[in-house]
Design goal:
Layout: E1 23-27, H1 34-41, E2 53-54, E3 57-58, E4 66-69, H2 81-91, H3 96-109, H4 125-137, E5 143-147, H5 155-172, E6 175-179, H6 183-189, E7 192-196, E8 203-208, H7 223-237
Parallel strand pairs: 1-6, 1-7, 4-5, 5-6
Antiparallel strand pairs: 2-3, 7-8
Helix pairs in contact: 2-3, 2-4, 3-4, 6-7
Length: 239
């Protein structure tokens, strides 16, 4: 990034592959380039060097096959739940009846049946993020990118939303990459965890999470979970 002092290097020689339907979490200290990496993968930000290969082709900009959920839900306050979810479908001129039908399907998927006509001001933080996830899934992307989607939620709601996200992933089996600051959350959700170093972000650990699925809350208290958490804390402590 240009900053008047020769530029700021956010990431440095970060290279990895992701398999179809894999759930990958990205973890690292503040300023390690996690959000920058996600925006590059979404085609929202062009890398100054290197490249992203998606399905055998170089990624040069946003693609319809990629959905993105930001840290804040960014719902339009004057639109209902269904109307917020239909927005990306309206942008590609999908007939309204089809868009509404798809939005209602997504409402069911994220567990918000009965709130179709509710405005954002009447939703809790967790409910608003469910709408954001539904909106990102509305156009049926193959890859879903999430940038700390639960970071602003309280601890109990955050855990509940993590379980909800797993349920959605198991139902639709999208490829998922999610940025988080929580070791426990990353291990509970992911097949793999990528740990980035401090700025400029470098990949310092690529950790397979060999825990059985479906994941249960009781897994957080097992020796296997604790061993994986220790490996991640050690990697972060050495950054």
């Amino acid at each position: 990034f240009p900053n008047g002092n020769g530029g700021l290097r956010a990431l440095d020689r970060v290279s990895f592959d992701i398999a179809a339907q894999e759930f990958v979490c990205i973890l690292g200290p503040s300023g390690s380039g996690k959000s920058t990496l996600l925006r590059i993968l979404a085609g929202l930000l062009a890398p100054t060097s290197g490249k992203v290969i998606y399905r055998g082709q170089r990624l040069t900009g946003p693609r319809r096959e990629v959905g993105f959920v930001f840290q804040k839900s960014n719902l339009m306050p004057w639109r209902t739940v269904v109307e917020n979810i239909t927005l990306p479908l309206e942008l590609v001129a999908q007939p309204r009846s089809q868009a509404v039908s798809r939005a209602k399907e997504m409402v069911e998927l994220v567990g918000l049946a009965g709130f179709e006509d509710t405005l954002p001001r009447d939703l809790s933080g967790g409910m608003a993020q469910r709408v954001a996830i539904a909106r990102a899934l509305a156009h049926d992307p193959d890859l879903l990118l999430l940038d700390e989607p639960f970071g602003s939620l309280d601890a109990l709601t955050r855990e509940r939303m993590g379980s909800e996200l797993l349920r959605i992933w198991q139902a639709r089996r999208k490829t998922v990459m999610m940025v988080t600051h929580s070791i426990s959350e990353a291990l509970f959700l992911a097949d793999r965890v990528l740990v980035l170093s401090g700025r400029p972000g470098q990949l310092c650990l690529d950790l397979p999470v060999n825990l059985a699925r479906p994941r249960l809350e009781t897994m957080r208290y097992t020796p296997e979970f604790g061993d994986l958490a220790r490996q991640m804390r050690q990697a972060i402590g050495e950054i």
